[in-house]
Amino acid sequence: MKPPSAGSAQAAALRRIGLGGITGNPIAFLVVLGMMALLLAVPLTHNGYIEIVFRNILMYAAMAYGWNLIGGYTGYVSFGNVTFFGIGAYCSAVLAMRGVDNLFAYVALAMVVCALFAAIVGLPVLRLRGHYFGIATLGIALAVADIVANLDALGGTSGIALHQVDEAHFSVYYYAMWLVALGSMLGTYFIARSKLGYAFVAIRENEDAAAVLGISATRYKVTAWAISAMMAGAAGAIFAPANGFIDPSITFAVDSNVFPIVMTILGGIGTVAGPFIGALLLAGANELLQRSFVKAHTLFFGAMIVLIVLLLPRGLVWLFGLRGGVRTWVKSLSAFKA
Amino acid sequence: MHLLAQDLVNGILAGGILAVVALGFSLVWGIMNIINLAHGAFIMLGAYATYQLFTSWHIDPFLTIPISFVLLFTLGYLIQRFVINWVARAPVLTTFLLTFGLALLVVNIALFVWTGDTRGVSPSYAGANFSVGGVTVPWVKLFTLLAALLITGLMHLWLTRSKTGRAIRATAMDIGAAQLSGVRVTQIYAIVFGLGTGLAGVAGTLLSMSYAINPNMGDPFLIKGFVVCVLGGLGSVQGALIGGLAYGIVEAFATQLDVTIGTQHISGSGLQDAIALVVLLIVLIVRPRGIMGKAIA
Predict the structure, then answer these.
(1) Cβ of A3 under 8 Å from any chain B Cβ?
(2) Which residue segment(s) compose the domain that A135 sits in?
């Protein structure tokens, strides 16, 4: 066995390869912006199935951006962001039950309610650090889902039917979701470059040092979580009418909780391009595998995740910053070896 | 009154299993800093191991505890040695993602081998119970609790007294210092992960006698194990036990709660998880490092 000091210095150097600035690699960001522009053309195919697939990708992307802000930039790993997606969906449902039929109103109400909920719950919960915050947020997610399932006013377990999904206006939901995803992406980009973003990263790297430098950690953490909640809430607010029906098991699904986290890490955590790339790859691959292998698709999906983590532990975005080609990549494979 | 006593007993009986569920999860997390999302899948494998041994060779489920431990320990040891070890020192979320993928793989392989049908392990004494002062106690659950206590005790002794156990705790405290003292970290990591999966296997065996067995049976226990291990304090054996019992009791009492707000009636049994989790939140806010956790430095 090599002496630990030499090995770890080399490993530490390898770990630093290919990391961009605070927004991640700029080329990756441009590529992702280009892909977003292309996605605007999806409804032109007039294929309902394709539109739903890509709408789901955009939905997951918005949720992943939300998670990235609190989990990736601020370093507070939330296992409860699905709560905001669910609250957003129920905001739309409540408005729809009262006869309001306006997507802007749905999204606006969802964002306000989610931000308020995140701020109120965040004040005590964001005092917890690391794993304890994660568990507390998981608790909130499960508890809110349980409570909604028991409230008759919100339809209980049988859910709420909003309306018949209208063929003629079907693409409206797609464009709305596209806007939410784009807004989340650009929001992340501009927040990351602002004082806010640097405060988030300072808290992630060393909260005590950040506090000594005069960053009010609690205020910034609550802000990060509230913005994060608004992104997930907006996605939920559009999902509800687009789907036409919601119930607790759809809106507070474990998948919707874990997928955005997995997508962000797979794409590249703490970068602007990462969540979108992760969402596109994961949701896309899941759909393709589902079509090609009726029985074994989840098996291949699991194998794909394992392989990507082993081959690209930094996330896919890391490839954009790789200099020195295959040799550097092969060397970097053992960077995290125990 | 005896209703409350029954709840208390039910809670303690359920809490014993939860302690074993959380123990392996807690060790892997506390010592290796890996949140093992495949823990639920390993619990499921343990339950199927018992199911196979019981239906094919008629081995008493309680006697399959060591077999399922050894099988799952070997599996975990190999997985750590040849897969997870490549990213063992990566940020915690990288291994989080890796174990998520592993969980999907294991669950779906189980779906191919055993299909999605629900199965059960019911030895001849499955329905037997006894009563003390109006409180009913099923024998299976009592023995399960005793087995859980025994395993937790053995784990504690082994970690504090044996040479390997001390090396494991040293690695958790300061990996560099442990290496300098001649601890082979790769080997220790593989043993700890093996222990984690082995204990998951034992938990699966214990659960197989009171719960339905299917490839997805581990999911709720993964979440409960997650909660219990933080409730008790990460990487602590006593913490897992106390956290498990506390969670079990709170959950059992929650079923008795009935709330009526206006015309809205909410029964406690529907809110069991929510109430347990609200208690968890309060505990965390009052004691941010868990019941048995160390004070914040």
Answers:
(1) no
(2) 20-332
Given a cut of 80, is residue B280 above it in pLDDT?
Answer: no
User: What pLDDT shows up at residue B86?
Assistant: 87
Q: Could you tell me which residues come within 8 angstroms of residue A170 by beta carbon, excluding any fewer than 6 positions away?
A: A48, A51
pLDDT of residue A178: 96
A272 in any annotated domain:
yes
**Structural domains of chain B in order of their starting residue, each with its CATH number:** 2-286 (1.10.3470)
| SS3 label, residue B126 | coil
| Candidates B29, B184, B277; nearest CB to A139 | B277
| 3-class SS letters over chain A | CCCHHHHHHHHHHHHHCCCCECCECHHHHHHHHHHHHHHCCHHHHCCHHHHHHHHHHHHHHHHHHHHHHHHHHCCCCCCCCHHHHHHHHHHHHHHHHCCCCCHHHHHHHHHHHHHHHHHHHHHHHCCCCHHHHHHHHHHHHHHHHHHHHCCHHHCHHHCEECCCCCCCCHHHHHHHHHHHHHHHHHHHHHHHHCHHHHHHHHHHHCHHHHHHCCCCHHHHHHHHHHHHHHHHHHHHHHHHHHHCEECHHHHCCHHHHHHHHHHHHHHCCCCCCHHHHHHHHHHHHHHHHHHHCCCCHHHHHHHHHHHHHHHCCCCHHHHHHCCCHHHHHHHHCCCCCC
Residue B43: pLDDT band (50, 70, 90) is very high
Provide the 10 A C-beta neighbour count for residue B91. 16
- Residue A256 resides in a domain: yes
Residue A159 domain-assigned (yes or no): yes
pLDDT at residue B296 in the model: 38
Is A12 a domain residue? no
- Asked whether the beta carbons of B232 and B222 are under 8 A apart, the reply is no
Count structural domains, chain A.
Answer: 1
Tokens 């409960």, located at residue: B224
The tens digit of pLDDT for each residue in A280-313 reads 998 998 888 888 887 777 888 888 888 888 888 8
Question: Between B83, B96, B284, which is nearest A128 by CB?
Answer: B284
Are B98 and A151 within 8 A, CB to CB?
no
Q: CA A79, A84, A85: angle at the middle one, nearest 5?
A: 100
ipTM greater than cut 0.85: no
Which of A31-35, A219-223, B127-131 is predicted least confidently?
A: B127-131
pLDDT tens readout for residues B53-101: 999 998 998 899 999 999 999 999 999 999 998 888 887 788 888 998 8
Average pLDDT, chain A: 85
> What share of chain A in percent tops pLDDT 90?
39
The answer to whether A232 touches A81, Cβ cutoff 8 Å, is yes
The answer to whether the CB atoms of B105 and A11 lie below 8 A apart is: no
Q: Does B135 touch chain A (CB under 8 A)?
A: no
Integer Cα distance of A262 and A255 in angstroms: 10
Question: pTM for the full model?
Answer: 0.82
Angle between helices A130-149 and A103-125 (to 10 degrees): 130
Q: What is the mean pLDDT of residues A30-37?
A: 92
Query: For residue A182, what is the domain's CATH number?
Result: 1.10.3470
User: Which residues does chain B have within 8 Å of residue A254's beta carbon, measured at their own beta carbons?
Assistant: 219
Report the alpha-carbon distance of residue B201 to residue B194 in Å, rounded: 10
